[in-house]
Amino acid sequence: MNGFDGLGMNLGNLFRLSDAQTRSISAENFDGAKGHGGMATEGTGASCARDLGLGWKVSPSVEIQPGTVFTMADIDGPGAIQHIWLTCSPNNWRNLILRFYWDKETQPSVEVPLGDFFCNGWCERSNVNSIPVAVNPAGGMNSYWAMPFRQHARMTVENRSTKPVVLYYQVTYTLTTVPDDAAYFHAQWRRSNPLAYKDVHTLIDGVQGKGHYVGTYLAWQSNSNGWWGEGEIKFFMDGDQEFPTICGTGTEDYFGGAWNFEHPYGQYGIYSTAYMGMPQVLKPDGLYKSQQRFGMYRWHVMDPIRFESDLRVTIQALGWRSEGRYLPLQDDIASVSFWYQSEPHAPHPKLPGPDDLEVI
Questions:
Q1: N or C: which end of the chain has fewer CB within 10 A?
Q2: Distance CA 295, CA 129 (A)
Q3: Splitting the chain (360 residues) into consecutive groups of 10 residues, what average pLDDT does each group show?
Q4: Can you list the pairs that 65-71 forms with residues at least 24 positions away whose Cβ atoms lie under 8 Å?
Q5: Do 93 and 189 form a contact (C-beta atoms < 8 A)?
Q6: With a threshold of 0.85, does the pTM exceed it?
Q7: Do residues 27 and 44 lie in contact, with contact meaning Cβ atoms separated by under 8 Å?
Q8: Contact at 8 Å (CB) between 241 and 260?
Q9: Which domains does the chain have, with CATH numbers?
Q10: CA–CA separation, 8 vs 4, rounded Å?
């Protein structure tokens, strides 16, 4: 068994030995060095541990100052990120920007607001019970996306808020060989607020290289009465122009539901499964919360969408108007696209400023 087999296990091969080495980075071991955990003499827990001393939770978290970038992990490869756990206050989830860089690249392969990366785009907690992403009470965020790198991995968190943010985190990784056909993990955030009339929300475009699309998260706000999910998702790949190779049949269909997600009658059915779900339905409260908001994910783990040279993904926003006609909607749609591809990748569009990221 070679070292790469230690990147990720399943119940079918969990008993097999590997030469891979497991390491973990946290505020208790900033560089993940062997035998260096729990050695902190100062940190956010120092006062609580004043009677106990070294080794007693002296540094369980970090405080990220406003307008600064914190390096959460800096790792020499080859290896792979296997698990990320973190937590912080929900009102900061759109103000904290995750960026992941592979093999000394200058442009991040991942650039996503923290909450949206973990399928919590509305700065309100929602449990998620899926294979790649799990969010548990009360706001424990977990990623199991495998993220191989050959030379180096760097993971940062930017605090765009006006106040310090306390972040608890742990990044578990393996040091192991990486095969030639291993692609790099990418994720990108976009928002249409509001979506222009008769336009489509573009999840990604301009992707160049060979790879496979593995997931979608949507934070969707309906800005009108009635049903909002008739729109089709479309995958334009490998030279497609006006018409896509893959075309869905409706928004709720793409996320594995049907018939308006209505279950029981007159209500949205909240669900969270291994590869698809709508775990978040935020209802108007009759005062300040005036619109319905939804959070949905779809993981293409068992059905990756493979492309050879290029990829563009769009989704329509459609409801109903009189006499059984479709109504193009002007909703607030934020998305995260997840994919693997060969490097180099095309730079992500510039992330908008705080006002355009804000949940309003």
A1: C
A2: 13
A3: 60 91 97 95 94 94 98 97 97 96 97 98 98 97 98 98 97 97 98 98 98 98 96 98 98 97 96 98 94 98 98 98 97 98 95 93
A4: 65/159, 65/164, 66/159, 66/161, 66/162, 66/163, 66/164, 67/159, 67/160, 68/158, 68/159, 69/156, 69/157, 69/158, 69/159, 70/156, 70/157, 70/158, 70/159, 70/167, 71/154, 71/155, 71/156
A5: no
A6: yes
A7: yes
A8: no
A9: 1-180 (2.60.120.1390), 183-347 (2.60.120.1390)
A10: 8
336 phi and psi angles, rounded to 5 deg: -125, 130
| C-alpha–C-alpha distance, residues 134 and 129, integer Å | 5
In this structure, are residues 308 and 184 in contact, taking their beta carbons and an 8 Å threshold? no
Q: Are the beta carbons of 156 and 169 closer than 8 angstroms?
A: no
Q: Are 143 and 150 in contact (CB under 8 A)?
A: no
Contacts of 199 (CB under 8 A, 6+ apart): 192, 328
**How would DSSP label each residue in 74-116?**
EEESSEEEEEEEEE--GGGTTTEEEEEEETT-SS-SEEEEHHH
CA gap 345, 183 in Å, rounded: 11
CA 142, chain centre distance (Å): 10
